[in-house]
Amino acid sequence: MTVRLELSWANRDLAWNPRDYGGIENIHVQPSLIWIPYITLLNSAKKIDKNILHPTRAVVRNTGDVKLTTPLTIESHCVMDIRHFPFDQHLCTLIFGSWTHDGTHVNVTSVLTKIYIEALEIKSNDFQLIDMNGRRSTYRHTCCREIYYVGLFDYQFQRRSALYQVGILLPSALICLLSAGIFWVPPMTGHRLKMGLILLLANLILLMTLGLSLPISATATPSIGKFDKT
C-alpha cells in the first residue's frame, strides 16, 4: 500500500520574527538538521529503514510549527476471514506510533477522523475500499509502564468478485450439474466412467485454482472450497 504520511508538530525553539529576516515566514530544511518524532508503522510486515522514512524536506514556519510530508510504501499484518469468498469483506488497522518516544514526549493525535475515500487514488484490481476512519488510542509495552499514544486507521475493503464468479463459481455449478447427469448415462456403455474421471480432474483443477487465489494468511476455509470437496 502506498500512502502519504503527514507529520505536524510544534518546536518553539525554531520560531523567529519575520521582520528580522526580510519577511521570510517559512523555510524548507533537511530533516536531519532538526528534531523529528520517529513515527512509524508499528504493525508493519517488513522492516522500515529509518534512513528512507523521511526523504523529503520539512517545512518550518516562523511560529515554530513544522510539517513533514513523506510518501511511503507499507505492508501491514491483517488477518483475513475468507469464509464468504469471493464475496468477502475485511477490516484491517494501520497503527502509527513511536517505539522510542512515550506519551510524555510525543502525543500522537489524528487530524482526520473521517476519511472520504472518494478523494483517494486507489488502484487495485482485486479489492475495493469501502470505508476508512482515523482515531487515537493508547497502549503499554509488556516491558514498560509508560503510556504510548498511537494513531489508528481502520479501513474496510471488499473483494472484486466479478472475475471469480466467472472463473470459479460458474465452473463449480456446471461440475455439480454434470455430476448429477452422470446417473442418466447408461452404465454398460463405459461413458459414465470416462465422464466421471473428466469431472474429477476438472474438480481438482478448480480446487488448485481456488488455492492459488486465496491469501496465505487466511484463517478459515471458504464455503466454496468445502462445497467442491464434497
From TrEMBL:
Looking at the Swiss-Prot or TrEMBL record, what is one Pfam family this protein matches?
A: Neur_chan_LBD
Question: From what superkingdom does this record's organism come?
Answer: Eukaryota
Any idea which GO molecular function terms this record carries? extracellular ligand-gated monoatomic ion channel activity; transmembrane signaling receptor activity
Q: Which InterPro entries match?
A: Neur_chan_lig-bd (IPR006202), Neur_chan_lig-bd_sf (IPR036734), Neur_channel (IPR006201), Neuro-gated_channel_TM_sf (IPR036719), Neuro_actylchol_rec (IPR038050), Neurotransmitter_ion_chnl_CS (IPR018000)
Return the GO cellular component terms, semicolon-separated. Answer: membrane
Taxonomic source organism: Strigamia maritima
Presence of the UniProt keyword Membrane in the record? yes
The way this protein sits in the membrane is described as: Multi-pass membrane protein
What residue ranges are annotated as transmembrane?
162-185, 197-218
Q: Which residues form a coiled coil?
A: none
Q: Where in the cell is it found?
A: Membrane
Where is this protein primarily located?
A: membrane
Keywords, alphabetical: Membrane, Transmembrane, Transmembrane helix
Q: What is this protein called?
A: Neurotransmitter-gated ion-channel ligand-binding domain-containing protein
Residues in domain Neurotransmitter-gated ion-channel ligand-binding?
2-159
